[in-house]
Design goal:
Length: 259
């Protein structure tokens, strides 16, 4: 019975995701940002990273670059692109019309996010493979941590995008409202610079930022530096952020245009 009950929901999600994927493919600027930025930005920070004493902290430049690339994928392939998607669909009354059909609110938000999340996942897997070959990072020592980090980062990025869209008046202003989280995450979540090389007090604060647990888990999967206790704490922090973000979306998400 449960399988029969889930079948219609699955079909509705696939149909909505296919429609969103077709619309995403038509927006060349969004596609370029989602695909190119996570690949190009890590190389822009490589000279600064190369100046750090990574070996002292058990890190390699390959692992740091790989973690940075996946962090940029969270921010640009999923978060910023979905902010624009949610705002555009709301302002075009697409979300309002979808609510009059069989789709539930959760199905609408999930189906709309699926293409960007799938793109982010595919990109992350490609980056992991490419870095292993080109930057000699090797196989991850704790692949389950990297997998947990990918799932947490993708889910949280989508939820934060939905929340940010609630306070965004237009697609154009989305380029502004998304900046604070992007800047804070790039600077403090271990994307541009590993938290391991930060002063201890600063690192302890930065580790509480929304995307920090996901980025930390992704990197720890390669280095294997997290103990079981630290891994559980990091997963718990990531889960707490997801719960808070989902609650905030349920409370404040706007389904009709902001006038």
């Amino acid at each position: 019975m449960s399988g029969i009950a889930w079948a219609p929901a699955g079909r509705r999600l696939r149909a909505l995701a296919r429609a969103e994927l077709a619309l995403l493919g038509r927006n060349r600027s969004v596609v370029f940002t989602a695909l190119a930025v996570p690949l190009l930005l890590p190389f822009s920070v490589r000279p600064a990273v190369a100046q750090l004493d990574l070996e002292k902290h058990g890190l390699s430049i390959g692992a740091v670059m790989m973690t940075a690339a996946i962090g940029f994928s969270f921010l640009f392939a999923v978060y910023t692109s979905l902010v624009n998607v949610y705002v555009a669909r709301r302002e075009e009354l697409v979300l309002k019309r979808l609510r009059t059909g069989e789709l539930s609110d959760a199905e609408i938000l999930t189906g709309t996010a699926l293409p960007a999340v799938a793109l982010g996942l595919a990109q992350a897997l490609l980056l992991c493979t490419g870095c292993a070959v080109l930057l000699h990072t090797g196989a991850p020592k704790a692949p389950y941590l990297t997998l947990l980090g990918l799932v947490a980062g993708l889910v949280l990025s989508a939820a934060l995008a939905a929340l940010t869209s609630s306070f965004t008046r237009s697609v154009e202003s989305g380029q502004v409202t998304a900046v604070p989280l992007v800047f804070v995450s790039m600077s403090g979540s271990g994307i541009m610079f590993p938290t391991q090389v930060m002063p201890e007090k600063l690192a302890s604060v930065c580790e509480l930022l929304p995307l920090s647990p996901a980025v930390r888990l992704v990197g720890a999967g390669w280095t294997g530096q997290l103990s079981a206790y630290e891994a559980l704490g990091t997963v718990a922090t990531a889960l707490a952020w997801i719960i808070v973000a989902v609650f905030a979306v349920r409370r404040w998400f706007r389904w009709e245009p902001r006038r």
